């Protein structure tokens, strides 16, 4: 376990160092060039904002994962409309969605409910959406569909992004896993947290992907 912690801390410090270095360089650029044109300055500021959002996500995810590791998470189950979970999750990724001009399309029966912990479900969907947005090019589309039958309630999250290589696919839910096509700001922790939450709630999550076509995440809750 100590080795595990040592590796994790190494990964965490690396994940933080990269965006922090990037932020420092960009701020230095702005400070060193008082006559910088407005367009370039704005571009730097947007990039700084993106890096700060990523650091914030990383730190918050780490705190939440450590709660699960310490076994101190209590789920407060209640009947919740899936549309409300999705609405709140979209709100959570609105900044990164806008930075890349990604549109999110939602479809499903508004009356479908899920017996779950609302706050933690929002957390799990938010992390999957963030991952989908990160792997989708500017002006791309992320689709969310939810449905139910006699056996299970299902949520599908589909993007038209770069896709995930088959050898990476089996590892995407591992902590700190960094696939070949991952961008520098992609942090292999959000999906791990999503899977932990979904499984603790009695559900399952799987991913299917086709390079250059996109990825589909399927969440199922048996009735």
Contiguous helical run count: 7
Give the number of DSSP strands: 7
Nearest-integer average pLDDT: 89
Q: Structural class, judged by helices and strands? A: alpha+beta
- N-C termini distance: 36 Å
Q: Beta fraction of the residues?
A: 15-25%
Shape: globular
**Helix content class:** 40-55%
Series of H and E elements: HHEHHEEHEEHHEE
User: How large, in whole angstroms, is the Cα Rg?
Assistant: 18 Å
Would you mind describing this structure in some detail?
This protein is α+β, with helices and mostly antiparallel strands and 223 residues long. It is built from seven helices and seven strands; from the N terminus they run H-H-E-H-H-E-E-H-E-E-H-H-E-E. The protein has helices at residues 2-32, 38-69, 82-92, 94-99, 118-134, 166-169, 190-200, and strands at residues 78-81, 103-108, 113-116, 141-148, 152-159, 203-210, 214-222. A five-stranded mixed β-sheet has the order 2-4-5-7-6. Strands 1-3 form a two-stranded antiparallel ribbon. Helix 1 runs antiparallel to helix 2 (38-69), helix 3 (82-92) packs across helix 5 (118-134) and helix 5 (118-134) packs antiparallel against helix 7 (190-200). The longest helix has 32 residues, at 38-69. The two termini are 36 Å apart. The model has no long low-confidence stretch (mean pLDDT 89).
């Amino acid at each position: 376990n100590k080795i595990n912690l040592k590796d994790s801390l190494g990964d965490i410090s690396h994940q933080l160092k990269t965006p922090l270095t990037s932020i420092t360089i960009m701020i230095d650029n702005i400070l060193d060039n008082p006559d910088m044109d407005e367009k370039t300055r704005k571009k730097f500021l947007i990039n700084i904002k993106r890096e700060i959002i990523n650091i914030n996500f990383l730190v918050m995810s780490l705190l939440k994962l450590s709660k699960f590791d310490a076994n101190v998470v209590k789920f407060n189950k209640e009947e919740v409309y899936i549309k409300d979970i999705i609405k709140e999750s979209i709100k959570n990724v609105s900044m990164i969605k806008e930075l890349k001009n990604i549109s999110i399309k939602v479809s499903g029966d508004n009356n479908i409910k899920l017996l779950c912990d609302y706050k933690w479900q929002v957390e799990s969907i938010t992390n999957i959406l963030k991952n989908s947005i990160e792997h989708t090019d500017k002006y791309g589309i992320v689709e969310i569909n939810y449905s139910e039958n006699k056996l299970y309630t299902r949520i599908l999250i589909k993007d038209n992004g770069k896709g995930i290589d088959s050898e990476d696919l089996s590892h995407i839910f591992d902590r700190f896993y960094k696939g070949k096509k991952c961008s520098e700001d992609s942090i292999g922790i959000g999906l791990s947290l999503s899977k932990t939450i979904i499984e603790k709630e009695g559900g399952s999550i799987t991913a299917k992907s086709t390079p250059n076509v996109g990825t589909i995440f399927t969440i199922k809750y048996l009735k």
